[in-house]
Structure formats: structure tokens, C-alpha cells
User: Fold Component of SufBCD complex from Falsigemmobacter faecalis.
Amino acid sequence: MDILRLLPEIIDFYSFSNLWFWIALAVMWSRASHFVLGVPWDLVTRARRSGDPQVLRDITALAEIHARRICHIARAGGAVLTGAVFALLTLLVVLGFGYGLHLAQALALLLVPAMLTSVLSRRACLRIEAGAAADETFRLLSRHRFFVQLIGMIAIFVTSMWGMYQNLSVSILGN
Assistant:
């Protein structure tokens, strides 16, 4: 058998009817809203409730470590990384929405909002790296989580609407 004919039969490239796509979408946004700049959100809520100074120092230290790490990555290879990411996103958008490739549509609907949250993360990391106080770090983490959740809700809504449209527009016979 020809491998190019066998591959689409084994792997379902029609992503919007695939359960694994929806699981990946849910897990991606769940993790993005739980780990805010690398800090687990349950640790932040525990620190707010208890007011324990050690937990406050831990959160501040963890946020500073992740902020320095992200800023270092951006400084070391930011231009190349930005160019490669935008080239990939452009390729996915053109292949998906220009040529109708469903796998590229699904990946674009996953990755474009994720890149928006990474831009917000970079901006928040710059503020933390500049020497934000502990209270300011908590406010920054809360605000960042809010915007990540907002982007996630919009992305899930748009993806589900587009997926339903794609599923309804395909006939039973596959035409």
C-alpha cells in the first residue's frame, strides 16, 4: 500500500471532530490559567488566605526566577524566535483559512491565542524583573491570570463555534 494513502486513513486530520483536539484545547487553557508565569495559582490563593510571610517570599522568588528565565530567553534569541513563530503562524493561517486545511485551522486556533498570552507574559516578566514589590507582584499575577483566562474563554468560544460550523458544513458522505 502507498504510505501517503494509508496515513490519512490511520490519522484523522479532520481535527474538529476529533476528541483529542478538544482535550488538548481544554488542557492547554487549564494549564495556562493555573500556572501564572510559572507560579501555581493554588500557591497564590493559599498565600493570600494565610498571609504566611514564608509563602509570600516563595511566590515572589518563584515569580522572579521565571521572569528572569523568560526575559533571558527573549534577550538571547528573541528576534529569531519571534520571526520563526510568526512565520509558522502565518503558514498555519494561510494553509488553514486560505487553502482549507483543517489541521492547520485547528493548530492556528490553538497557537494564535497562545502567542497572545506569551506576549502578555513577556510584558509581565519585564515588570517583575524591574523589581516589583511583593504586593505589586501579587497584583500583577492576578491581573495577568485574568487576561489569560479572558483570552482563553474567547479562544475556546471562537474555536468551538468554528469547529461546529466546520462539522455542520461537512456532509455525511464527506463532500
About this structure: The first helix runs from residue 3 to 10. The chain has a mean pLDDT of 87.
